Amino acid sequence: MVVAAATGLFPGFGCKMALSVRASVGSELSQNRLATYLTEGYLLVRGVFSEQKLRVWESRFVDLVERRIAMPAKVRLMRDVMVAKGGVPASGTRPVVKIQDLEEDEILFTYSRDEVLLDLVESLIGRDITSVHTMFLNKPPGVDGRHPLHQDQVYFPFGPPDLIVGAWTAIDSCNRQNGCLSVVPGSHRLGLLSHETPPWDFVNDKYWGVVRHDEFLERSVHLEMDGGDVVLFHPLLIHGSGTNGTSGFRRAISTHFASSDCNLTAEGHPLGLRNYVRVRGRSRL
């Protein structure tokens, strides 16, 4: 099913090294780094979060999924499609792809309210910031687990895209072996492309991919990250992730933020509205 109208043509992006910068507490992005983000559609920021914070968020995720503490009513848990097809046991953390809509969990939502992270986000979309989509992502071993190359804007009933930014933080090391993120630099300049469900044996619900997926895949860059690194990316940036081929888990925590100057365009959108929470300044979403 095509869920977005195609626009623009794909220029010949070549593979290049991931662009990164070292974070400092309370700092905003420099003009050079802002220019890089505008040109490439993403920016990798190293060392934003401490090991202590990462372990707090990971422990909370495990406690929620294993029912050691009650899951808040509006937090949604998603299991991998291979569980339904009998390929993966249904218990523990192994079948879980992610939990999302974390606003009601006082521990996990501290990520979205973190002042250092919000300083970086403010550099890109301004001071009036709303959290619009929150997730803790879990890529288990032993499942297909691929997320096709896609643009996050296809999921959002608001815009303009230039006033939205995603922040994706590695909980542990993310590399090509365990299914790190891949991005197509500069692809945010193509506009919103057509998306469809890939013709794979195992595809999770609403894991839409861009049309001409394999052409973009050939031009993608792997973002290998250490725990605590953050990638900031434009909602039109084409990105995805591969299969976890290791015996461990690849985990991350993520929030999309939008400026209060965004406008809702929800009519007819297949996903509707989420729980939007102001995290800095004012909000009218």
Descriptive account of the structure:
- With 285 residues, the chain is of the alpha+beta class.
- The protein has 6 helices and 17 strands.
- It has helices spanning 31-40, 51-65, 81-84, 110-113, 115-125, 213-217; strands at residues 20-22, 42-46, 76-79, 96-100, 129-139, 147-150, 158-159, 164-170, 181-183, 195-196, 209-210, 221-223, 230-233, 239-241, 250-259, 263-264, 277-280.
- It starts with 19 loop residues before the first strand and ends in a 5-residue tail after the last strand.
- The model is unreliable at 1-26 (pLDDT under 50).
Q: Topology, pairings included?
A:
Elements: E1 20-22, H1 31-40, E2 42-46, H2 51-65, E3 76-79, H3 81-84, E4 96-100, H4 110-113, H5 115-125, E5 129-139, E6 147-150, E7 158-159, E8 164-170, E9 181-183, E10 195-196, E11 209-210, H6 213-217, E12 221-223, E13 230-233, E14 239-241, E15 250-259, E16 263-264, E17 277-280
At a glance:
By secondary structure, the protein is an alpha+beta fold. It has helices at about 30-40, 50-65, 80-85, 110-115, 115-125, 215, and strands at about 20, 40-45, 75-80, 95-100, 130-140, 145-150, 160, 165-170, 180-185, 195, 210, 220-225, 230-235, 240, 250-260, 265, 275-280. Strands 1, 2, 3, 4, 5, 8, 13, 15 and 17 form a 9-stranded mixed β-sheet that branches. Strands 6-14-9-12 form a 4-stranded antiparallel β-sheet.
Sheet with the most strands, sense and barrel status? 9 strands, mixed
Mean pLDDT: 85
How big a fraction of the residues is strand? Answer: 25-35%
Topology pattern, helix = H, strand = E:
EHEHEHEHHEEEEEEEHEEEEEE
The CATH superfamily bears the name q2cbj1_9rhob like domain
Q: What is the tally of helical segments?
A: 6
CATH class category name: Mainly Beta
Task: Give the CATH architecture.
Answer: Sandwich
Compute the separation of the termini in Å.
28 Å
Structural class by sheet pairing and helices:
alpha+beta
In terms of per-residue confidence, which ranges show pLDDT below 50 for 5 or more consecutive residues?
1-26
Helix content: 10-25%
Task: Tell me the domain tally.
Answer: 1
As for the CATH topology, it is: Jelly Rolls
The total count of strands amounts to 17
Radius of gyration: 18 Å
